[in-house]
Amino acid sequence: VQVAHRAIMNRLKWGLSHFDVGVEDRVLLSTTASFDVSVPEILAPLQVGAAVVIARPDGRRDPAYLADLIRRERVTGADFVPSLLEAFVNEPLAKECTSLRWIEVAGEAFPPALANRVVEVLPGCGVHNLYGPTEASVEVTAYQHVPGADRVPIGAPVWNTQVYVLDASLRPVAPGVSGELYLAGTGLARGYLGQTDLTATRFVACPFGEPGSRMYRTGDVVRWNEDGQVEYIGRSDF
């Protein structure tokens, strides 16, 4: 996937502002460099003079090690997939990770019961559900979980991002009605390197923007809820 510098910088600068990252913060790097989430883990904190705490190569698979590392190094921000987050909060040391100010959750559906469990174990930590494909520069929507809520939407668009929920004829659907999720804006990738046919299939003309603008067809089925947040339902191709 060809992602422009301008596109990824939009994501990094949004994250720095959204999580209020400053020079006193210590951000955990536990994702391998072959995954897109590693880009904000590495590059975002360094832009503001924050520290990057690097986990050992196999550390992401070891929740006990991560809990000890976060506690010992006073980590303030971390990223988890829900399956690992569940194992992490079940570790006895997790409740001692009181330095955590925010947790970013992405990569899988985020069960409300797990979100509430995290808030229970770490009441001073904000829990944020993020969604996005590499084709739109890592993440494009975000939602901060409300303790006790029985749903965890994927949220609202980040900076300079447009989100469309459309039917098969590319018409916007009403709130509460499911449709396919399309993405547009600064974070959109250029396409797939050397795969012009696939690029043309997934990156299509955007009827809602300026002439020549494009949008990315995610294949994800979603709906707008009554609060203006996007809720994930499933895939259109399964």
Automatic annotation (TrEMBL):
Q: Which UniProt keywords apply?
A: Phosphopantetheine, Phosphoprotein
Instruction: Report the GO terms under cellular component.
Output: cytosol; enterobactin synthetase complex
Record InterPro entries = AMP-dep_synth/lig_dom, ANL_N_sf
What GO molecular functions are on record for this protein? 2,3-dihydroxybenzoate-serine ligase activity; phosphopantetheine binding
Q: Which residues form the AMP-dependent synthetase/ligase domain?
A: 1-193
Matching entries from Pfam families are given as:
AMP-binding
Q: Name one GO biological process term.
A: amino acid activation for nonribosomal peptide biosynthetic process
Q: By what name is this protein known?
A: Non-ribosomal peptide synthetase
